[in-house]
């Protein structure tokens, strides 16, 4: 269950009809996306008897960096769930990815451990965003074609990707663009490499803008005044399996989205229970001009 959290977290990007990431700036008229490392403390919110969960705690670490050849995301999710019977399950999940600036290539790797034992490894790359050459005498307009995700672990696993699929940073940029333009809802297929079939149909609902300086969290966290200084919007994402035929999402994820890609106020809603994530630490990271670094999010326990 906890593995699916990373699908929602990847949708943050750090956290779109037309999208080309030629620079570390989001499209339209906004400022640059912020390379940063954020730490969120997790705890159980609402729960029901059906969930059989009476306690949860943990930590989520998200790193996002704009490098000269693409965007790097590292995430680590460490959680402990307590059941009605008094048992406990400890989950430790790492997800790392690299996304090309033009959105055409995405590399990903995931390692999942439960109670100290590795239960899943996922590695591969996905391609999308190729252009169709005109084939009719009049010249049909070029457009995006379906792509494919090819896995090295599990070996031989391949997934066809639909036309218009977005990878996580491109999806995050699409959300920011939509919010700036006053859109209240967008729907796109998103592939994030968070599991053996990392493809979801994602519906995003965007609330009213909040002006700079209105964020309460910025007043109590070091460096937050620098990274939480711009406009923001409440966002709720609903995740559906591509083959799902009814209208109920697999789960939902809500947060406050900043114009620079930073996120606060995380809410993971699985229907029978909810886990909340509160920003406890945030710091800027070096951007495009710096050499690649080995990030701490996947090296040490959060």
Summarize, please.
With 302 residues, the chain is mainly beta. It has helices spanning 5-12, 168-180, 224-227; strands at 36-47, 53-66, 70-83, 88-100, 105-114, 117-127, 147-153, 158-161, 185-191, 199-206, 232-240, 251-258, 263-269, 273-284.
Question: What report would you give on this structure?
Answer:
- The protein contains three helices and 14 strands.
- The longest helix is centred in the middle third of the chain and has 13 residues.
- It has one domain.
- It has 302 residues and is mainly beta.
- The N terminus and C terminus are likely disordered.
Task: Output the strand order for the largest sheet.
Answer: 8-7-6-5-4-3-2-1-14-13-12-11-10-9
Number of strands: 14
- What distance separates the N and C termini? 20 Å
Q: Which structural class matches the secondary elements?
A: mainly beta
Report the C-alpha radius of gyration, rounded: 19 Å
Broad shape: globular
Provide the residue-averaged pLDDT: 77
Q: Please, how many helices?
A: 3
Helix content, binned percent: under 10%
Low-confidence stretches: 1-30, 130-143, 289-302
Largest sheet: 14 strands, antiparallel
- Share of β-strand residues: over 45%
Q: How many individual domains?
A: 1
SSE run: HEEEEEEEEHEEHEEEE
Name its key features.
14 strands, 3 helices, 14-stranded antiparallel beta sheet, 302 residues, single chain, 8% helix, disordered N terminus
């Amino acid at each position: 269950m906890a593995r699916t959290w990373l699908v929602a977290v990847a949708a943050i990007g750090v956290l779109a009809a037309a999208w080309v990431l030629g620079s570390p700036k989001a499209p339209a008229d906004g400022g640059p996306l912020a390379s940063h490392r954020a730490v969120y403390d997790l705890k159980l919110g609402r729960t029901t008897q059906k969930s059989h969960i009476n306690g949860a705690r943990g930590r989520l670490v998200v790193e996002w960096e704009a490098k000269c050849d693409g965007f790097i995301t590292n995430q680590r999710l460490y959680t402990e769930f307590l059941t009605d019977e008094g048992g406990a399950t400890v989950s430790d999940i790492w997800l790392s990815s690299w996304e090309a600036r033009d959105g055409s290539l995405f590399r990903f790797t995931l390692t999942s451990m439960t109670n100290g034992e590795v239960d899943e490894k996922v590695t591969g790359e996905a391609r999308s965003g190729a252009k169709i050459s005109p084939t009719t005498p009049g010249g049909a307009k070029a457009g995006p074609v379906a792509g494919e995700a090819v896995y090295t672990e599990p070996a031989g696993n391949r997934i066809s990707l639909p036309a218009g699929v977005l990878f996580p940073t491109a999806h995050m940029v699409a959300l920011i663009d939509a919010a700036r333009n006053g859109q209240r809802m967008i729907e796109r297929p998103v592939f994030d490499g968070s599991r053996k079939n990392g493809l979801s149909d994602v519906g995003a609902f965007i609330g009213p803008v909040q002006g700079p300086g209105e964020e309460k969290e910025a007043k109590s966290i070091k460096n937050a005044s620098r990274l939480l200084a711009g406009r923001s919007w409440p966002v709720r994402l609903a995740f559906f399996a591509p083959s799902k035929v009814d209208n109920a999402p697999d789960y939902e994820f809500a947060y406050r989205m900043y114009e620079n890609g930073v996120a606060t106020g995380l809410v993971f809603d699985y229907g029978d229970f909810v886990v909340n994530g509160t920003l406890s630490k945030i710091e800027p990271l070096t951007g495009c001009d710096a050499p690649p670094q080995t990030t701490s999010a996947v090296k040490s326990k959060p």
